[in-house]
Every structure is written in structure tokens, then in C-alpha cells.
Design brief:
537 residues; alpha/beta; Rossmann fold; UDP-N-acetylmuramoyl-L-alanine:D-glutamate ligase; seven-stranded parallel sheet; 19 strands; 17% strand
């Protein structure tokens, strides 16, 4: 399984698909069928986050005339085969007569599968579109609305009746989940001012660059890539890539029975304070689940008894405290005397911003010869500069959110965008994990990768601390480039968040529960979800 996939412009994607499928109807139908089935399966999983299908659930398909409409119709058929109580409404926005041959085939298959549970209509001419939509669809709560109107060949402006359909559906409150096929209608290499407003966008085969634009998230929602083996025999050049499930690689495979715990690395973590005791604890909780062999945590001495009782697997080193409860400079030798044991170091969670502690952070960063991850309170210019000057060839990984990145780059991401991010990586000769929403960017001096897993469940205090511990553990024992290891941790962390949200929703959960779902994200442990064909009780 591939670990990453190229992200292409719509023009480049069309050229690649044309060369791959070569206009052969059988190949096009195979690709469409697989895309539709994968969209249906992925939509089912994401639907669980909002409670999943109801026994009499409703699906609204907005169908254009091209292959996106075929994907959407096949996705609806897939969902119906899993949940036979669903009712499906199809609106042919350009009229049923305009459907391309393969889309007509997909429509016939859906009719045959769902029978009386599916009905369809073309938008009537001679009547205002919004009025027609309201009369036919307005009295229904739609569990899912799936947009398959326009494809990647879209060029503005939006034309009637598509513009009116998008305005009507975007204004509707009575829709549970809004999903788009490939790209929300209205997005393209050049986008319209308005587009279909999706909660999820499912990208089969090729991920399109417009979905990753700076302001695209308000239309795309969360992005899901579905592999159709379009790059099995090679791929076009691209300086943007997205991370796929193959990045998890051997994390779930059998381990070598002859290896010792020291063969799996030794992670050091430094941080914590009396004012913010929980941040480093959450990092340690994640670190001990990362596969690393040994974990040593340096924390204010007053915190050690409670922390050691909570996570006995880690070794806890008491550090002298400042009067405010932070790490005092007099404890520096505790690290220096042991630094040769570390194969990676995480510093920053819960550390605080007191002047003495910040000076200590810079001292440590300049003397750590192992891979170093700086997070939270260690993301300061003086600390990063000390790390850069003292690194040698050891990797440096920074894990800021947008506000922290603006602080260290001295310019907001909104102002500078991805060019600013890449320039900063080249300047600091390191890896930056710029946390979302709606996705995470992982960049080094030469590459930019997108991590698509995770979602609103991560929008809570502590989720970043869990990520830093997980990434630090992987840096301590994994081989490969720092950007690849960082991408692996980002994907794993986000996949655990997806599992948590599908099991418990995104509201009444805590960040520490992410740690519990790390095994499930690797395909181990209990699975969330429902049995196909059955409804939640």
C-alpha cells in the first residue's frame, strides 16, 4: 500500500485520468463502480459520528450529468444495500435526459436495487428553482445530502439552475450530513464565489489541489481520499502530497522476537509545571503507547508522586522547581548527565513561559544531540534558534498550531500561506507539523504533505499534547526521514480521533481518550460502528 499520494490540479488530474482510462468504457465503469462503493462505505463510517443511519433515514442525491453523478448514485446504492430501510431522493439538476451513458447505467442499477425506496425528478422548467425545490424537498429532514452535480472540469461562473440549487441547499438547516463527491460543486482550478457547503468531501482516485486551498475548508469540510490504484504503475510529479493509511506500515505487524526494549529507543520528555501539570502527563500517556522501548520524564519534583502512580511504565525524574512551580535552571545537570541515553527528546508541554524556564529550554535545546521535538511553551524564537545552532545533523520537529506558528515565524499563516511554511522549514532546517483545521500540514525543506485524519474531536485542550508524545515516541525508535515519521504520527493520532468520534461522538469526550483508541486505529482491538444492514438501537 502506498504511503503518500500526489495532489494535482484539476487540469493535471484530467490529463492523468485520460491517459489511464483512455476513454475505454469498461475501464471507466470499473473505476466509477469502485469509487461509488468506496464513497458509500466511507460515508457510512463518517455518518456514525453523528449517530449513524436511522431505520427510516433519508438520502438526497443532487446529480449532474457527468461521472460525479454516477459516483453519487452508486454510493447511494451501496448505502441502500447496507441499510435497506433508507429512502432515496434523486434530483437531476440538468435533467435526466442529459445523463451520460455510464451515469444512466448507475441510475438503472440504483432503481433495480432500491425499487420503491428511490424516486427521482428533474428540475422543472418555467418555475423558480427554489420554489420547485421547496415544494418537493422542503418538508423532509434529509439525513444525508450528497453533491454530485459538477466535476473537476468546472469553470466559473455558476449557471442556472446550479446556482439556485446550491443557494437553496446551503441555506437549508434540515440536513444532517452534507457530502460532496470529488470536489464540492463550484470549486475548481478557478472557483466560483459560492460552492456546495460540505461536511465531508470524498476524493476518489486523485486528490485535487483546489480542495487544499487556504479558504477551501469552508466548502469542503473534512477531506477523505479513496485509493483507486490510479498510481500503481507510476505517478506524475507533484510537490504536494497527502498521507494515506499505508504510512502506518509495520506498526501493526509482528515484532522481532529477538529485540530488546532498548532496541526500540528511549524517549526523554521535559516539561510540566504546577500551574499546568496535565499537559506533560498526557504526552507521557501517549508516549508509552507509541511502541518506544523506554520513556523517561523530567518534571517538577512536586508532581512526581501523582504522575508515577498514574503512569508507572515511565521513569520519572524529579526536577528542582522555581518559586512559581516551573523547572529551575539548577536542574540542568539532571538532563546533561543522562542525555547520552536519549534517542529522542520532547520538550515544552505544560512548561510555562517564565523567564528562567525559557532560558533553561534554550540551554537544553542547544545541547541535545538527539532528534528534538519542540511543542507548546518551547515554541519560542530563542529556543528554536538554540536548537538550530546546536543540532548538528539531528532532526528538529516543531508542532505548532496556527497561533504558535505566527509567533515563531513573525507572520501569520493567513498572510504567508504554504510558501511561508516552506520558507520557514528551509530557514530552520527542520520539520514543521502545522496543526489544522481542516487538516494538518507536515512540511520540511523540500516537501509538503497533508494529514487528513482527525476532525473537530481534536478541537480541545490536550489533543496536541497527546500528539507530541506520540510523535516523540516514534522519533525515538522509528527509522525513516523525520518528515515521514512525523506524517506517520499525525495520521495515527488523527485515525484514533476518528475512531473515538465514531464510537462516542465529538462532544462528550476528553483528549486522554485518544490514547485508548490508538490500538483500534492500527486495526487492533474492538471496532466501532454497526453491522451492515442493521440500525443502531
Amino acid at each position: 500500500m502506498k504511503t503518500t499520494y500526489p495532489v494535482l490540479s484539476c487540469a493535471a488530474a484530467m490529463a492523468w485520468e485520460k491517459g489511464l482510462l483512455q476513454g475505454a468504457e469498461a475501464r471507466e465503469w470499473t473505476a466509477m463502480s469502485r469509487a461509488g462503493r468506496l464513497i458509500g462505505a466511507a460515508l457510512e463510517e463518517d455518518w456514525l459520528e453523528g449517530g449513524g443511519p436511522r431505520p427510516e433515514g433519508t438520502i438526497l442525491i443532487l446529480a449532474g450529468k457527468g461521472h460525479n453523478a454516477g459516483d453519487a448514485l452508486i454510493a447511494a446504492e451501496e448505502l441502500y444495500r447496507r441499510y435497506s430501510g433508507l429512502r432515496i431522493e434523486v434530483v437531476f439538476v440538468m435533467g435526466e435526459r442529459a445523463l451520460r451513458p455510464l451515469v444512466k447505467r448507475a441510475w438503472r442499477d440504483l432503481q433495480q436495487a432500491a425499487g420503491e425506496r428511490v424516486r427521482a425528478a428533474s428540475i422543472a422548467s418555467g418555475r423558480p428553482v427554489a420554489e420547485w425545490l421547496e415544494a418537493r424537498l422542503g418538508g423532509v429532514f434529509w439525513d444525508v445530502c450528497l453533491d454530485g452535480i459538477l466535476g473537476m472540469q468546472f469553470k466559473p461562473p455558476l449557471r442556472a439552475p446550479v446556482d439556485a440549487v446550491l443557494s437553496w441547499v446551503n441555506a437549508r438547516a434540515r440536513i444532517g450530513l452534507r457530502a460532496a463527491v470529488d470536489l464540492p460543486s463550484g470549486l475548481g482550478d478557478v472557483s466560483a464565489e459560492e460552492a456546495f457547503r460540505a461536511d465531508f468531501t470524498y476524493m476518489p482516485g486523485i486528490a485535487k489541489l483546489p480542495a487544499f486551498g487556504r479558504d477551501a475548508g469552508r466548502w469542503t469540510g473534512r477531506l477523505r481520499y479513496l485509493d483507486l490504484d490510479f498510481f500503481a504503475g507510476g505517478e506524475p510529479a507533484s510537490d504536494r502530497r497527502l498521507v494515506g493509511p499505508g504510512i502506518l506500515g509495520g506498526l501493526s505487524a509482528l515484532r522481532d522476537p529477538l529485540k530488546h526494549k532498548k532496541d526500540y529507543g528511549h524517549l526523554f520528555l521535559i516539561g510540566g509545571s504546577r500551574a499546568m501539570p496535565g499537559a506533560l502527563l498526557m504526552s507521557v500517556m501517549a508516549a508509552v503507547r507509541s511502541g518506544v522501548g523506554l520513556v523517561t520524564a523530567f518534571v517538577p519534583e512536586s508532581l512526581v508522586p501523582a504522575f508515577a502512580a498514574r503512569v508507572p511504565e515511565a521513569m520519572w525524574v524529579p526536577w528542582p522547581e522555581t518559586a512559581q512551580g516551573g523547572l529551575a535552571r539548577e536542574g540542568l545537570n539532571l538532563f546533561l548527565d543522562r542525555r547520552g541515553e536519549a534517542t529522542a527528546l520532547v520538550m515544552g508541554p505544560g512548561m510555562g513561559t517564565a523567564e528562567e524556564t525559557q532560558a533553561l529550554s534554550a540551554d537544553i535545546a542547544g545541547r541535545a544531540a538527539c532528534p528534538l521535538l519542540l511543542d507548546a511553551d518551547a515554541l519560542r524564537g530563542s529556543v528554536i534558534d538554540a536548537a538550530v545552532s546546536g543540532r548538528g545533523g539531528a532532526p528538529l520537529v516543531l508542532t505548532p498550531h496556527a497561533g504558535e506558528f505566527s509567533r515563531v515565524a513573525e507572520k501569520t499563516f493567513t498572510e504567508g500561506g504554504e510558501a511561508l511554511l516552506m520558507d520557514y522549514c528551509r530557514e530552520k532546517r527542520g520539520v514543521v507539523v502545522l496543526k489544522g483545521p481542516p487538516f494538518t500540514r507536515i512540511a520540511d525543506e523540500a516537501s509538503l504533505w497533508y494529514g487528513l485524519t482527525g476532525g473537530p474531536v481534536l478541537a480541545r485542550g490536550g489533543s496536541g499534547d497527546v500528539l507530541s508524545g506520540l510523535l516523540g515516541g516514534l522519533l525515538a525508535w522509528e527509522t525513516g526521514s523525520a518528515v515521514e515519521v512525523a506524517a506517520r504520527g499525525v495520521y495515527w493520532h488523527g485515525a484514533a480521533a476518528d475512531c473515538l468520534a465514531r464510537a462516542c461522538g465529538a462532544t462528550a469526550v476528553s483528549a486522554t481518550r485518544l490514547v485508548e483508541f490508538l490500538p483500534e486505529a492500527l486495526g487492533k482491538g474492538p471496532k466501532t460502528g454497526t453491522t451492515p444492514g442493521r440500525f443502531p438501537s
